[in-house]
Amino acid sequence: MQYALMIYADPGSQEALSDAERAAVFEEYSVLADDPRRVGGAQLQSAETATNVRVDGGRTLMTDGPFADTKEVLGGFFLIEAADLDEALEFAARIPAARLGGAVEVRPVVQG
Amino acid sequence: MLDDVFRDEWGRVLASLVGFIGDFDKAEDAVQEAFAIAAERWPSAGMPDNPGAWLVTTARNRAIDRIRRERTLAEKIHLLPPPEATVDEIDDSVIKDERLELIFTCCHPALPLEGQVALTLRALGGLETAEIARAFLVSEETMKRRLSRAKTKIKATGIPFSVPDAHRLPERLDAVLAVVYLIYNEGYRGRVDLGAEAIRLGQVLTALIPDEPEAQGLLALMMLHHARRHARFSGEDLVLLDDQDRSLWDMRQISAGRAVLDKAIALGGRGAYVVRAAIASLQTSEHVDWPQVATLYRRLAELTGSPVVELNRAVALAQAGDPATALLAVDRLDLDGYLYFHSTRGELLRRLGRDDEARAAYRRALDLATSTPEKRFLTRRLENL
Questions:
Q1: Is B159 within 8 Å of A108 when comparing Cβ atoms?
Q2: Quick check: B160 and A83 CB within 8 A?
Q3: Ordered per-residue pLDDT tens for chain B, 385 residues
Q4: Binding-site residues on chain A for chain B (CB distance < 8 A)
């Protein structure tokens, strides 16, 4: 099955790290990105770059900022292939954001 | 008699079917059909030699029949072996027990806790949806939705039907034990005796994993508490341990509980359930060794970090004859919103002869009391001062 692992990071958490710690976290993400189970994914630019689009009665409305105004912001996602939910959850638990004040939302992908 | 067989076989037969077709709802339908056929046939034709194997075989055949009828569906069903081969290969005498897989599926932490509880009672305990609803004081419709949501999530998210790997097992077993203990603690609220149901689940679990000390500890704990259930209430009123009528205790269950506790300790069990069971065992002895109870509560407080456990330790200290030290320990706790914090203080102050302060503490407890029996109990305490 395929699972989307959506990474909600605490934006302040990276700044709180030392250079060496930040390099270690970067290295952890690279290892996960190279995992053969990863079939897709992306890192997103900061939430300040977000624009929300709605269409109401044919009119396009645009607002600045992320969809949900929460402390944690969607910072990226992995799309992985896993045998079952346990394997996906274990992968998710290895994502640094999960232990740095953020959380990872794990959702199965609708199979075509 | 037939009901007993059904209750005993339900979990095992359902587990086998979930393992066979990998789909909770379809497994349940097939098992229900098999049980209905048995209920119709067995009274006249007699019970087969191995009722469990008969039920599994019949349920599998029903499931296969249904799948044949719905060919397109069959292609989508996970893990379905070719039906023809399977029917012939069923060995009537040996049906693999897959209840442990079922327990870990039902108690998967990705499910909401109330869903885990309901599903465990339904799937392993064989309780009807209506019975579970009554036990949790919700409507049958609500309980049906709760069960169906849990089953949908299992299917949609790929929660595995398997016993977790060794490295995941400890925390997953903790989750299972927590569900069983929660069922036990719901025991007295509704009309269904969930206490007995939780003990049955504990027995199934300890039979499947006999070497896990905490599972044994939990079973011992539940048995030792359950044995005192008839003495714990007088009408609606709560009766404290000291005042309980010991002739109402189930001594057979107490000794059975102690035997399970011995096994847990022999397995090296030193965890929270084992310690709680050891405390319950001491409290059911002729002369309670309160200093020892206090020591065990200290250990339990270290394990759980719970101030309520500290409060219980203080009560044990007072029972051991040292209310002054007990009061010092209680006054260190940050439990101002907790009824039993104030009633315990009241009792300790009373024993120390500080009646005015005792009265104030009991009044504070009375302010926090919500149930009528609690209020009656505290009012009586106040009047006796």
A1: no
A2: yes
A3: 678 888 889 999 999 999 999 899 999 999 999 999 999 999 999 989 889 999 999 999 999 888 888 766 556 655 555 544 344 445 555 678 899 999 999 999 999 999 999 999 999 999 999 999 988 889 999 999 999 999 999 999 999 999 999 999 999 999 999 999 999 988 655 556 899 999 999 999 999 999 999 999 999 999 999 999 888 888 777 788 888 999 999 999 999 999 999 999 999 999 999 999 999 999 999 899 999 999 999 999 999 999 999 999 999 999 999 999 999 999 999 999 999 999 999 999 999 999 999 999 999 999 999 888 889 989 998 998 8
A4: 1, 82-86, 88-90, 106-108
In this structure, what CATH number is given to the domain that contains residue A33?
Answer: 3.30.70.1060
DSSP-assigned letter for residue B230: G
Domain housing A6: 2-108
Q: Residue ranges of the domains in chain B?
A: 2-89, 289-325, 336-385
Q: Widest CA span of chain A, in angstroms?
A: 52
Note the CATH architecture for domain B2-89. Orthogonal Bundle (1.10)
Q: Do B158 and A89 touch (CB under 8 A)?
A: no
| Chain B residues touching A88 at Cβ < 8 A | 158
Q: Which residue has the tokens 């399977």?
A: B86
Q: Which residues of B touch A83 (CB under 8 A)?
A: 158, 160
| Inter-chain residue contact A83 with B108, CB threshold 8 Å | no
Distance CA B304, CA A81 (A): 38
Tokens of B34: 């098999």
> How many Å apart are CA A79 and CA A43, to the nearest integer?
12
Amino acid at B135: A
- Number of domains chain A contains: 1
